[in-house]
Design a protein that fits this description.
The chain is mostly beta strands. The protein has 2 helices and 8 strands; from the N terminus they run ββββαββββα. Helix content is 7%, strand content 37%. The strands form 2 sheets. It has a 6-stranded mixed β-sheet. It has a two-stranded antiparallel ribbon with strand order 6-7. The protein is globular.
């Protein structure tokens, strides 16, 4: 699985009671950039989906993931994916949700971050 570099805002947020300064990533959107993040609910690994890629057109997240295995914990991703930061795995048995609309989508203070990129496998599409 290849990695992709995207521009993100990085905020340190209070995501749960007694969980402060937790690093949350927000991909910048608009213009030429239409990326979103999803997370493996088994291990918390983050993945980027490039919605500008013609391969992802008209596909759901589960279709894009197909039979791809998580490079961190080896589960079938289509069974263990959730939208991020709507779902954040902060520990083995603790999940929280963060409202992305609370963050302004400005380039100022953003960084380039590398994530594994989810792309549909041709064998899953046939």
């Amino acid at each position: 699985m290849q990695k992709k570099r995207i521009r993100c805002l990085i905020k340190y947020e209070n995501v749960a009671p007694d969980v402060f300064n937790y690093k949350v990533f927000f991909p910048l959107t608009g213009g030429w950039s239409n990326n979103s993040l999803v997370t493996c609910t088994n291990c918390g690994e983050l993945f980027v989906i490039d919605w500008e890629n013609p391969e992802t057109e008209n596909l759901s997240v589960k279709q894009i993931a197909g039979s791809t295995l998580c490079p961190t914990c080896n589960v079938v991703l289509s069974l263990y994916l959730a939208d991020y930061p709507a779902t954040i795995r902060i520990s083995e048995n603790q999940f929280v949700s963060f409202n992305i609309e609370a963050i302004s989508n400005q380039d100022e203070g953003s960084e380039i971050v590398e994530f594994y990129e989810l792309r549909p496998s041709q064998k899953d599409l046939n």
